[in-house]
Design a protein that fits this description.
40% of the residues lie in helices and 17% in strands. By secondary structure, the protein is α/β, with parallel strands linked by helices. Helix 1 runs parallel beside helix 2 and helix 7 runs parallel beside helix 8.
């Protein structure tokens, strides 16, 4: 079973070396693919140092400039499929997602899931170091998605996700429209509409300690209006 974790990066020099060492230490032989959008802080240089240390288990796709979270993941998905991976995971570089939870997500893909979501809300609200206002916005966004689309997922905006390769092979990745955090909603919705099994595994989300958040009002707006269009889109 070949597994890879895709991590988009932009200015993550404080986190990327530690993240690499942590994922490399896990049982389960998770490889890493970083998709770096021209980080001016030297993130890619640190990744190259880790590539020299760990060999083919650590990989890098470099892009020029910030092209969007969704397009970074799509580039990573295509790379992973071309390189024969059976299970493809996505997560953040800032340790808001605990790499140890990859073991549990992989176990769900082995048992009863085609898509497994590391969920903050499937068992209460498991978020640490966020202000109440941000928790309510995030939880409210997932509630909004459930109401509009009918998709039975408690944490539709989650960015800690694992896919069987068959799911990504069925989804027309070139047809994915949203490039910000709405991308996470669109991918889950498309997989669900195609009949794949979506399961949620409870995690604790801890806000980043180092680096800066990439969230913006434009990203939120894209997701809000994009969700309204999802039920009317034809799957291709």
């Amino acid at each position: 079973m070949k597994r890879v974790v895709i991590i988009p990066t932009y200015n993550e020099c404080e986190n990327v070396a530690r993240m690499t060492d942590k994922v490399m230490s896990l049982a389960g032989d998770f490889d890493l693919l970083y998709v770096d959008d021209g980080s001016p802080d030297g993130t890619a240089n640190i990744i190259r140092e880790k590539m020299a240390e760990y060999g083919t288990r650590v990989n890098l796709v470099e892009r020029s400039g910030k092209l969007g979270l969704g397009t970074a993941y799509i580039a990573g998905f295509k790379w992973a499929l071309a390189n024969g991976y059976d299970e493809i995971f996505e997560m953040d570089c800032d340790f808001s997602h605990n790499p140890d939870d990859l073991i549990r997500l992989a176990a769900r893909l082995e048992s009863d899931a085609d898509v497994v979501v590391g969920s903050r809300y499937v068992k209460g609200m498991n978020v640490v170091n966020w202000p109440l206002s941000r928790i309510l916005i995030s939880y409210g966004a997932s509630l909004y998605v459930r109401i509009v689309t009918g998709m039975p997922v408690a944490d539709s905006t989650a960015g800690f996700v694992g896919y069987r390769r068959e799911v990504l092979e069925r989804i027309n990745l070139d047809n994915v429209r949203m490039i910000g955090y709405g991308f996470q909603i669109e991918m889950k919705y498309t997989a669900w509409k195609l009949g794949f099994r979506l399961r949620e595994e409870s995690i604790v989300f801890t806000d980043r300690e180092l680096g800066t958040s990439k969230m913006s009002s434009s990203i939120f707006g894209e997701a809000f209006f994009g969700v309204l269009k999802l039920p009317f889109r034809k799957l291709k």
